[in-house]
Design brief:
By secondary structure, the chain is an alpha/beta fold. It folds into 3 domains: about 5-230, Glutamine Phosphoribosylpyrophosphate, subunit 1, domain 1 (4-Layer Sandwich); about 245-430, Rossmann fold, CATH 3.40.50; about 430-575, Rossmann fold (3-Layer(aba) Sandwich), CATH 3.40.50. The chain binds 6-O-phosphono-alpha-D-glucopyranose (G6P).
């Protein structure tokens, strides 16, 4: 959460470089943003609430600047709470990603010493604490001492207009330094740096970098100098553009056939290697968050049914409480689009300490999870810009399907069906189908609740459908296992309650029809996502029977329904309220 980017060098358009970087990092948070540049011995500041979009800045020309795009944790969404935060003298500016968990007692002490706070953020304690430390020590030592007092997972960057230095420290959130000719960049993600240089330094936890005329790397704990290990990468920033589409969410839904084809046709070698690691492991665990977790859950069902293997799928933030089972022979497969989800990173770090092997299945080359892993598999879905994940989800499902079949003797048994699924998705986004879903969205837009149900591997589709609909339309949508309905949720079904029911041509069909009938008997409206029509459906959304590959297609109508519901309700489907694409705080 929160995107940070800084520049120090010979160029005089620091503010513009920072603004361009922030536009790249906006996926990390978009409730407010701010930029500072060094102006003489003080700081010029420009802060705003709302998304950056195509904003401009009128800050003066400068050779040092830094900026931040925020996802609020402490303090509401106001200009005052937007970063950067200054000290009392307005010579220091601080950017922060994370949560300073002990900010309250620190703030109280600083206020008692006479410091005036201008915001409600935890971040501002950093500005004043460093200012206070400066009375007795140098700039870098002041930052180090302050940072070491913070509890929680944090990254901060401090600009000192007087010494013309930047100091960045991290413990948790990512920070990457780019080194060009007589110039330096620091950002939360390499994509903001790569247009200028490909010589990168990935800061590790408990490291601090001082950027003056030269760069120095310091161990935050001991204060000793470290030798920077620069990496020259050949990564290209993949550009995403909307093409003919109005939003990234629908564009990325349209990208899905291409993603499926790419994985089906090009991943066999990588799948074989990964299948070997799973065969060799004693205990395989999938961990993931959000949409990625629903892909992991699908994986657990696929592995059981197709490969006859037991794997555990855990919500990453809960894995901390299940990790007692880990040994040196355990294999943890982390699924993450961004590769930066802190809920996934933390258990991976602990698993690593226990000697377990780690596989990263991620869309982000060079991300924290990618770098942590022993084996890496890139989703190759291309940049996913909409916060609601669609094509990265499909990519994970495609990989898990291939893996399950590889463990059952080879991927050939499923590849034709997967390629067929790609063609089916192309048909599903035909104008006629889109119009039908738009009509359905119109009728659902007035509802307060929607329920989505599935059994077996389709439970993962039901849960993901509910997430997709609720996160962009803000309609309460609850996904549940068909069998669980009668254990409570059926109490909420009344005349007109819409229920989306997944009914593929598998062993769950008859039981799901019974569940749908129970809902119908209580006045509920049944929207059946199925290969064949049934008299109890009020609406039938046809999805061809493609065997196990139906998993790839049956989610698509729900993705589109979410999109159309967001439009119907006048919301931005690409940047839903309160969410961010990369969640780097707990
Ligand atoms: C956030 C995003 C979700 C995503 C989840 C996990 O909550 O809004 O769309 O599924 O994080 O993200 P990851 O990048 O680890 O897949």
């Amino acid at each position: 959460m929160c995107g940070i980017t800084c520049y120090k060098g010979q160029r005089t358009d620091a503010a513009q470089i920072v603004l361009r970087g922030l536009k790249t990092l906006e996926y990390r948070g978009y409730d407010s943003w701010g930029i500072v540049v060094k102006k003489g011995k003080t700081i010029a500041i420009d802060k705003h609430t709302g998304k950056i979009g195509d904003a401009t800045t009128t800050l003066p020309s400068a050779t040092i600047g830094m900026g931040h795009t925020r996802w609020a944790t402490h303090g509401g969404v106001t200009v005052k709470n937007a970063h950067p935060h200054l000290d009392c003298t307005k010579t220091l500016a601080v950017l922060h990603n994370g949560i300073i968990e002990n900010f309250a007692p620190l703030k109280e002490k600083l206020q008692q010493k006479g410091h005036t706070f201008r915001s409600e953020t935890d971040t501002e304690v950093a500005s004043h604490l460093i200012e206070d430390n400066l009375k007795t020590m140098g700039f870098a030592s002041s930052v180090r001492k302050a940072f070491n007092e913070f509890s929680g997972l944090n990254a901060i960057i401090v600009l000192n207009a007087s010494s013309q230095e930047l100091v960045a420290s991290k413990n948790g959130s990512p920070l990457i330094v780019g080194v060009g000719k007589d110039e330096f960049f620091i950002a939360s993600d390499a994509s903001a740096i790569l247009p200028y240089t490909n010589k990168l330094l990935f800061l590790k936890d408990n490291e601090m970098v001082i950027v003056g005329d030269k760069l120095q790397l310091i161990d935050l704990i001991t204060g000793t100098k470290l030798t920077p290990n620069y990496e020259t990468v050949d990564w290209k920033v993949e550009e995403a553009n909307l093409g003919k589409h109005a939003h990234y969410m629908i564009k990325e839904i349209y990208d899905q056939p291409k993603v499926i084809r790419n994985i089906t046709q090009n991943y066999e070698g990588q799948i074989k290697i990964l299948a070997e690691s799973i065969r060799a492991a004693r205990g395989t665990f999938f961990i993931a968050a959000g949409t990625a977790y629903y892909a992991a859950l699908a994986g657990a069902y696929l592995f059981s049914k197709i490969a006859h293997r037991h794997v555990n799928a855990a919500v990453a933030s809960e894995f901390n409480y299940l990790e007692d089972f880990l040994t040196r022979k355990s294999l943890i497969i982390a699924l993450s689009q961004s590769g930066e989800t802190i809920d996934v990173i933390e258990p991976l770090q602990r698993a690593k300490k226990k000697g377990s092997s780690i596989v990263a299945i991620t869309n982000s080359l060079g991300s924290s999870i990618y770098r942590l892993a022993d084996h890496k598999l890139l989703l190759g879905a291309g940049p996913e810009k909409a916060v609601a994940s669609t094509k990265a989800y499909i990519a994970k499902l495609a990989i898990l399907l291939l893996l399950a079949y590889e463990l059952d003797g080879g991927i050939k048994k499923i590849t034709d069906q997967m390629l067929h699924a790609a063609r089916e998705i192309e048909k599903m986004v035909s104008p006629k189908n889109l119009r039908a879903l738009q009509r359905l969205a119109k009728t659902l837009a007035t509802k307060e609740h929607i329920y989505t149900l599935g059994r077996g591997v389709s439970l993962s589709s039901a849960l993901e459908a509910a997430l997709k609909i609720k996160e962009v339309s803000y309609i309460h949508t609850e996904g549940l296992a068909g069998g669980e309905l009668k254990h409570g949720t059926i109490a909420l079904i009344s005349k007109g309650t819409p229920c989306i029911v997944f009914l593929p041509n598998d062993e769950t069909y008859d039981a799901m029809i019974s569940n749908a009938t129970e809902i119908k008997a209580r006045g509920g409206i049944i929207i059946g996502i199925s290969f064949k029509n049934n008299p109890i459906f009020n609406e039938w959304i046809k999805v061809e029977d493609l065997g196990a590959a139906t998993l790839l297609t049956q989610i698509v109508p729900a993705q589109m329904l979410g999109y159309f519901l967001a439009l119907e309700k006048g919301y931005d489907p690409d940047k839903p309220r309160n969410l961010a694409k990369s969640v780097t705080v707990k």
